[in-house]
Design brief:
With 170 residues, the protein is an alpha/beta fold. The protein has 2 domains: 1-31, no CATH class; 35-159, Rossmann fold. The chain is built from 5 helices and 6 strands, in the order ββαβαβαβαβα. It has helices spanning 22-31, 44-52, 87-96, 108-112, 144-159; strands spanning 10-11, 18-19, 36-40, 75-79, 102-106, 135-137. The protein has a 4-stranded parallel beta sheet with strand order 3-4-5-6. It starts with 9 loop residues before the first strand and ends in an 11-residue tail after the last helix.
């Protein structure tokens, strides 16, 4: 049924009724309508822009037009070298995003510092040193196909999320 988990959806024979859980329905909505906050720092930003262009068209995978505000974004794509000068900006933007929020580290520089890891005092050795990262996309720079694969992996991760119930305080 178009990639939908058969255990979660049960058709009632003879009736046009589909039964599922609210958790599945909300996660399906979240995973297929991701608002991005693109944070292109260096060369990986070119491949990220190419992924949103007509040839690859990330909109057909459920990504919306990049958001101009972190308050409307669900996902941040950190693409390129993270320097100490940009660290407070990345942290501030991440903190301004509403929950649930996701981060993709795109490229060798965003994952580990890339070729600048040895000789540069100003490079942070991975975006995960300052903010939590959900998906890592290796490459220098990674091709648009790799970014689309990472987006699909993030969508699968979103579909598996469980809602937390808040216990009442007595």
């Amino acid at each position: 049924m178009n990639g939908v988990d058969e255990e979660l959806i049960k058709k009632i024979p003879g009736l046009p009724i589909v039964m599922t859980t609210a958790e599945w329905a909300i996660n399906a909505g979240r995973s297929n309508s991701i608002w991005t906050l693109t944070f292109g720092l260096r060369c990986c930003a070119m491949e990220m822009m190419a992924t949103g262009a007509p040839k690859y068209d990330w909109a057909r995978f459920g990504l919306e037009v990049p958001s101009a505000s972190p308050r409307r974004a669900d996902m941040m794509i950190v693409a390129g070298t993270v320097t100490k000068k940009m660290e407070p900006v990345i942290i501030r933007l991440y903190e301004q995003m509403a929950e649930p929020k996701y981060v993709i580290a795109m490229g060798a520089c965003a994952i580990s510092g890339g070729p600048f890891i040895y000789d540069s005092y100003s490079v942070i050795k991975g975006a995960d040193k300052i903010i939590p990262v959900d998906i890592y996309i290796p490459g220098c720079p990674p091709r648009p196909e790799a970014l689309l694969d990472g987006i699909i992996k993030l969508q699968k991760k979103i579909m598996k999320q469980k809602f937390r119930t808040v216990k009442e305080h007595k």
